Amino acid sequence: MKLRRPLVAGNWKMNGLKASVAEFTRIVEGCDGPLAAEVDLMVCPPATLLSAFVAAAAGSDVAIGGQDCHAKPCGAHTGDIAAEMLADAGARAVIVGHSERRCDHGETDAQVRAKAEAARRAGLVAIVCVGETRAEREAGQALDIVRGQLAGSVPDGATGAGLIVAYEPVWAIGTGLTPTNEDIAEVHAALRAALNARFGSEGEAIRLLYGGSVKAENAGEILAVPDVDGALCGGASLKAEAFLAIARSYL
Ligand SMILES: O=C[C@H](O)COP(=O)(O)O
């Protein structure tokens, strides 16, 4: 039996209208017994569709997550969503520190850490994202960057049940580019070593996802890389067949 159960998660980002619930329902229908026996599935829709997706996933093995949360449980923060609100809507997890948040909204490691703590407070799994830019990789800094982000963004006391880490090289997101399998393995090994050093046996239980241009065609080899416990998919998660094909790599 695998130490860590695989997870294929979909981040719909700022995509999807009410009509998209039908496409998500096809994901739910495709998550049949054999697939659910081998891999966890999760979809993180935009906040406007969260409740509809929770309803569509009711009784299935597909979990729903949020894409971001505020660090505080409530208050005067126009436009923000508390982790407690996501949990109340039926989410089981929330992505924090996605590079699009770090870049578009200037989120720092300290803010991401506070959001991850908020997720824990609300009973949600925090999916903490880390990843280097193209310039950082070309400068040979990829490992230092992701180690630094991990150290700064992951709260103390993290557990395998409460935390997932996603390695997403910024330059691979939505570009069709992916690192070599050796480069993915090197980063995941570094993340695994850092988690184990900090959290001991709990660190060993924390799942490490790879994200960045994962599609059905490359999923088999990427998901077979050592220390890759699943995928965080963007574009490919918007279409049921493409998303399910990635998950079926585990069959
Ligand atoms: O959160 C998901 C990632 O940013 C990956 O996006 P992508 O699969 O469209 O490259």
UniProtKB/TrEMBL annotation:
The keyword Lyase does not apply. The active site is at H98, E168. It is an enzyme of class 5 (isomerase). InterPro entries: Aldolase_TIM (IPR013785), TIM_sf (IPR035990), TrioseP_Isoase_bac/euk (IPR022896), Triosephosphate_isomerase (IPR000652), Triosephosphate_isomerase_AS (IPR020861). It catalyses: D-glyceraldehyde 3-phosphate = dihydroxyacetone phosphate; L-erythrulose 1-phosphate = D-erythrulose 4-phosphate. Keywords: Cytoplasm, Gluconeogenesis, Glycolysis, Isomerase. SUPFAM superfamilies: Triosephosphate isomerase (TIM). Its EC number is 5.3.1.1. One of its GO terms (molecular function) is triose-phosphate isomerase activity. It comes from the Bacteria. Pathway: Carbohydrate biosynthesis; gluconeogenesis; Carbohydrate degradation; glycolysis; D-glyceraldehyde 3-phosphate from glycerone phosphate: step 1/1; Carbohydrate metabolism; erythritol degradation. Its main location: cytoplasm. Substrate binds at N11, W12, K13, G174, S213, G234, G235. GO terms for biological process: gluconeogenesis; glyceraldehyde-3-phosphate biosynthetic process; glycerol catabolic process; glycolytic process. Involved in the gluconeogenesis. Catalyzes stereospecifically the conversion of dihydroxyacetone phosphate (DHAP) to D-glyceraldehyde-3-phosphate (G3P). Homodimer. This is Triosephosphate isomerase. It comes from Ancylobacter dichloromethanicus. The gene is tpiA.
